[in-house]
Specification:
mainly alpha, 2 domains, flat, binds iron/sulfur cluster
Length: 121
């Protein structure tokens, strides 16, 4: 999914005008903002931005992973403090299950999307 690098966005509005899903607005600070619920993932905003201010998903992977781990560490540590070390381990296991389920959902979703494309990658 696209995301805006606010420091690089000049608020020129090109992406707002070109987005086919009307998913981008300019904020009062004149920064582009994408409504992910509307975004059709067409990629046009990446192509038209003269400042290369629209980032790609892959650039966010390291920070998303770090945030997920920090979140689990904080929450499970609290369990450990209040309920003991075994509960902290149980809690960590449930976080692991949760992310395994996310993988399963993503894989099945990709399978369905490939079918929509007629099996082409
Ligand atoms: S085209 Fe680029 S610089 Fe212009 S408003 Fe959109 S993100 Fe910002
Ligand atoms: S990817 Fe396409 S639909 Fe999504 S915000 Fe960019 S231009 Fe709009």
């Amino acid at each position: 999914m696209p995301w805006i690098k606010e420091n690089d966005c000049t608020g020129c509005g090109v992406c707002v005008r070109k987005c086919p899903a009307e998913a981008i607005v300019l904020t009062s600070a004149r920064k582009a903002k994408i409504d992910m619920l509307k975004c059709a993932r067409c990629g046009v905003c990446h192509e038209v931005c003269p400042r290369h201010a629209v980032g790609h998903d892959s650039e966010l992977v390291p920070s998303l992973v770090s945030a997920n781990i920090a979140d689990a560490e904080k929450k499970t540590a609290l369990c450990g403090e209040r309920l003991g070390a075994p509960e902290r381990e149980n809690s960590l296991d449930r976080f692991i299950k949760h992310y395994r389920r996310e993988i399963a959902v993503a894989e099945k979703t990709i399978e369905g999307l490939m079918k929509l494309k007629g099996g082409k990658a």
